[in-house]
Fold these 4 entries.
Entry 1:
Amino acid sequence: MPAYVLGHKIPDSDSICSAISLAYLKNAIGEEAVPVRMGELNPETTFILDTFGLDTPELKTSFAGESVYIVDHSDRAQSPDDLSEATVLGIVDHHKLGDITTSAPLECWIRPVGCSNTIIKEMYDYYNVEVPKGIAGIMMSAILSDTVIFKSPTCTPVDVAAVETLAAIAGVEDYKAFGVEMFKVKSRVEGTPVRELVMRDFKDFEMSGKRVGIGQLETVDLSVFDSVKADLQTDIARLKQEGGRHSVCLLLTDIMQEGSELLVVGDDLSIVEGAFDTSIIDGKVWLDGVLSRKKQVVPPLEKAFA
Ligand code: MG
Ligand code: MG
Ligand code: MG
């Protein structure tokens, strides 16, 4: 029986590419593994898989009685609903330690680097397995995506070195130019329903018993959101009601200006204002230098909610 390799709900490029790259490695060292996805691919991930000629993992959301490797998260809120009925063989992740627990020993590769694929690159080195060309391409892409082409404060020298090695294997000469192309695809808004934009990279967090949803849209030019901003604000208010959430935040991140406009609705906005030491006017505020949800948004919010 194969083990399934799965990333988080509402998968981003790292979750999908990690599932593929880790499953390949596991098979190469004699463990049968199959990459799966927990939701639809976003346009950026589709672009990456098309560029490097890799198949979309099959959709699978239920894992009772199965064995799994978890990548790119360790929070139950982002995991399959029936994870407690599965056997977790291992976790590969670069986020804060979440609340997944196991009843048997597991393999754990958790490091504070910019991307799960950076850790998986180290695993290839550890097992002395060569990274195939296409897989090198998607691993490189995921690292460029998660580190916002090295601009995110989550980026480390290990991430940069991994991209350089993987780009050479994949035959990508100008990986920064490739990264900018990728972010243009990522922030495409024309013809996209507002709810789809809000949910494109959305995660729920439990903060002192309160449910807080945080979405992020990364773009090379914030003005692409001008025409839809009011609709985005209306929709996050709806999403707050529907999910019984205390607050919903949506980060509109400009990777060139290196900051984010925060759109927010909540039962008590003073908590959010306190977290960022700022004033929210008309449900929004510019946060200079804020690029990373995991490092610059979740920790201050958790502190403010505590
Ligand atoms: Mg992710
Ligand atoms: Mg990641
Ligand atoms: Mg991200």
Note: The pocket of magnesium ion (ligand 2) is lined by residues 14, 72, 94, 115-116, 146 (CB under 6 Å).
Entry 2:
Amino acid sequence: MEKAGSRNLPGKVLADMVVINIGQILTMNPGKGPKRGAEAKDLGIIEDAFLAAYQGKVVACGPQAAFPERVEVLAGATVIDACGKVVAPGFIDSHTHVVFAGWRADEYGMRCRGASYLEIAEQGGGIMSTVRATRSASKEELVERTLGFLDEMLSFGTTSCEAKSGYGLNLETEIKQLEVIQECNRLHPIDIVPTFMGAHAFPPEFRHDRKGYIDEIIRMFEPVSSNKLAKFADVFCDVGNFTVDESRVILEEARKHGLELKVHADELENTGATELACELGAVSCDHLIKVSQKGIEMLAESDTIAVLLPATSCFLGEFPGAPGRQMLDSGVAVAIATDFNPGTCTALSIPLCMTLACSALGFSPEEAFVAATWNAAWASGLGGIAGGFGPGFAMDAVIFDTHDYMDVPYRFGINLVDVVIKAGKPVRSKNNK
Ligand code: NIG
Ligand code: FE
């Protein structure tokens, strides 16, 4: 196979896919590691630009005027004229529970009438209701449903996502969920990073034997890791679920099996889960609605990324939600994601989450873009691979039907996605779905 650049004319790169006449390209100024502080506002914009790729990877990006001297377009290449529109890296949804059966609209109605998330869970609803449905569903049914959700995510510009198990809570169904993720990864253009979340709740079989279920989770790590079914392990460390001490035991065992760590932290109440995530060097620490001042300080000093889920806090009626502005001002590296699941967030649109991050959590539109692309990549184990446009990065891009990137968070509830490009191939366009 011919190598990129082997037939280059002097100073030129070969390209089999190019986007030309881009009004604004958001390169994210690829650098090292997650962005925080002033860097987290810098979109690395080039106006009137081109983007070129070879075999699914970016090879060049720069001013349109330099295109003829920098790029040799191969015969048969895909050429897209962006006609002055905005191009950004494909969104990376760094926190989803996309594999599940059933819905829970009844609970949404109960919450609207005043019941709390925990009260509903205590009556056998909540996560347990989805566990019952997911245990009964066949693998084929789950694959078909998940592919449908992934299609919807793609339509809103998501090109990679993280996906958790955690609606099985026994070996058989946890593995079934992870195999569904594996199969969907094979079948769908969206790249999916799998997370094992057996520690999502205590199943009814173990209601009176917490230690018994924790031992069971620890036993599940072996088949999960030896079959390479997950990159991360996650724990719901919160009231009504796993305590800080229980979570520590589980996460330390996960690490022994080669899994990287994530924590659902301080969503319902402050329990010190964020401090635990920082202490253990978790890759991310997610939710943080009730994070403490100490937790924010520890995040700012650590490499752990705060993944904020503004659609979840909004859907739960927790206004305004996590103290995003304070975290950004304290130098925390922040990502935003959907948390797509049937209980606490039925939205799977990252642009919607960007609007909510701006309007409710105090992000600027620029910070919202960085949080949904560059930092989201680092929160998903895709740092340096996706989420920005530098040589060697994945050619995962979105063309928006606008000339001003501000419109993406500003045009609240409207889908501005025009074309989605994954690994150098247009996989979705508004006119030709
Ligand atoms: O991230 N917090 C825990 N897990 C999900 C909710 C899952 C559910 O209610 O089904 C969340 O909000
Ligand atoms: Fe979640």
Note: The first helix runs from residue 67 to 70.
Entry 3:
Amino acid sequence: MSKRNKVMVTGGCGYIGSHTIVDLIQNGFDVFSVDSLINSKEEVLKGIEEITGKKIENYKIDLSVPGSWKAIADREPEIAGVIHFAALKAVGESVKFPLDYYKNNIGGLLEVLEWMKYSKIPDLIFSSSCTVYGNTNDLPVKEDAEFRPTSSPYGRTKQMGELIIQDFFAGFEGKSISLRYFNPAGAHESVLIGEAPSNPALNLVPVLTETAIGKRKSMTVFGTDYPTPDGSCVRDYIHVMDIAHAHTLALRHLLDGKQHSSFDTYNLGMEKGMSVLEVINAFERVSGIPIDFIRGERRPGDIAEIYANTRKAKDILNWMPTRSLDDILKTAWEWEKQRSKI
Ligand code: UD1
């Protein structure tokens, strides 16, 4: 292990960030968070502390403001690596407010890279998405598939983010990995942390749990006329703790000097396509609650089907997801009940 053992997690109070902090601590890392709290709450740090016994510090700064990080950089000279989550992620919202997405997702990334240069932090893990593949026909999709046009500014910030990182690391003494998530869902098994969006949920699994608990009267299946077996969209759902552990493995891979190229990418999914209707059925079975849903119009920007080939993460990072779709839905449901105090 290098002398530096401290990991900076941007967006550490957010969904995947908070779960990753738990996994990092349980694997021996010291961690601090940088989170502006525009779409998250510092309370999540209490949940992390209850799970791990460790108190995590969060620096409340907006990374998209140039130089906002300088004072902290001088206080934290021993950073081994950065895991950069801090970003906006609502596809539809990004169409309405593209400048917010470019400012936060691209502006924030540029500042993180400036910080890395300033503090000579060698290694970066970037939070990317299968959205970079656009509407690909090449399924299960592999990392070497080309970037196809993506339907939203959000998707473009992930494509551009990867290109910026490649350019930066080509001339920087350090290494970088981009982790392309498919559909992360579920919560930590303790349900002391989970997905807690400040705004109404938009992703399928939290929409399902909110419907089951009665926060919504019913939900809509966006499109049942896709060219898929049952007509609804097919995605690859992966447990958030399996995603979290991939970050620890990727960072360890870089810190141990095992990566030769300056930039590499890995898919994180279950290699299994599940339709929206199949997920609803599975949720009803797991929770015992019937879901009131309507068959609605297609949601603009959705693609019919995408699922991952994850051979590379398994072979090189030794990553193996250990939770099933049922585990995803059970923990998401327990988390919803816990949050709603039922
Ligand atoms: C998209 C991106 C993903 C990104 C995520 C961030 C793609 C292929 N995926 O995921 O990379 O990280 O946004 O938010 O671009 N659905 C319903 N009813 C609902 C909600 C969702 O039917 O109320 C359906 C959607 O049409 C979709 C599936 O459920 O087919 C999953 O949707 P969602 O959870 O929003 O994720 P993606 O759009 O797949």
Note: The two ends are 45 Å apart (CA to CA).
Entry 4:
Amino acid sequence: MDDLQRAAQLLSQAKNAVAFTGAGISTASGIPDFRSHGSGLWNGVDPLAVASIFGFRQNPQAFYNWIRPLARILATAQPNAAHYALATLEQQGLLHAVITQNIDMLHERVGNKVIFELHGHLREATCTHCFAVYPAEPIINQFLCDGQVPRCPGCNGVIKPNVILFGEQLPFAEFHAAQEAARQADLMVIIGSSLEVAPASDIPLLAARNGARLIVLNLEPTPADVFAHIVIRANAAEVLPEIVNCLETTA
Ligand code: NAD
């Protein structure tokens, strides 16, 4: 039996499987991840200067200049076969939740219902002065046109998308619910994450400590590989549909 068949078998036997996803599940949608060589969003920038809350407060224009190419891609990105595979697994009752570090909302777009977005999302944006909340899409579209830092129509404060920057707390309710899902899981499938960003990266370890088996599906080695039952080094957009196929042919 190969690794994909073994992964399918673990999924079919699990009572409470949970997926944990990172930027690597969306690279096949054309969205670059943060750390892969060449395509990574960190190449040539100081993360703390542009993508921390401290950097944002000091120089929001630098943040917006850095995020602009990504925002352009995100505005038109479509879900890929890996996202669809996770939606199929949830519909079949084989996946109970998706815990994601991604802000791209592609799990929601394909119809997954139980999603914990640990690092926020691009659905809304908030004024950093008066805390008014706005739908993000028109704000991002305007910014893509003029490149200017978005300002609050009410108080002229700087608007920040509801994504978590370095130095910010994770959304408490979301993180707490994700931890609970990890504690209850008997199988966690980790897909496309370097597991380098804490505290999100602690979630798979929490699952393992509470008895969950781990499957790691990632192009490069991760710190969770040593705890994993199965490590698959391959493109998630190719492999996840194959795992779903294995499940369907053995059902
Ligand atoms: P990361 O960039 O640190 O790691 C991505 C991992 O995915 C790498 O180890 C890489 O080898 C692997 N990978 C890339 N393409 C793959 C593929 N097709 N199949 C399988 N594996 C693949 O990303 P991370 O661990 O998610 O953490 C960093 C932060 O990146 C998160 O906070 C997240 O919010 C942010 N981010 C999100 C998006 C998005 O929403 N799509 C995009 C870029 C960054």
Note: The domain at 32-76+122-163 is CATH 3.30.1600.10 (SIR2/SIRT2 'Small Domain').
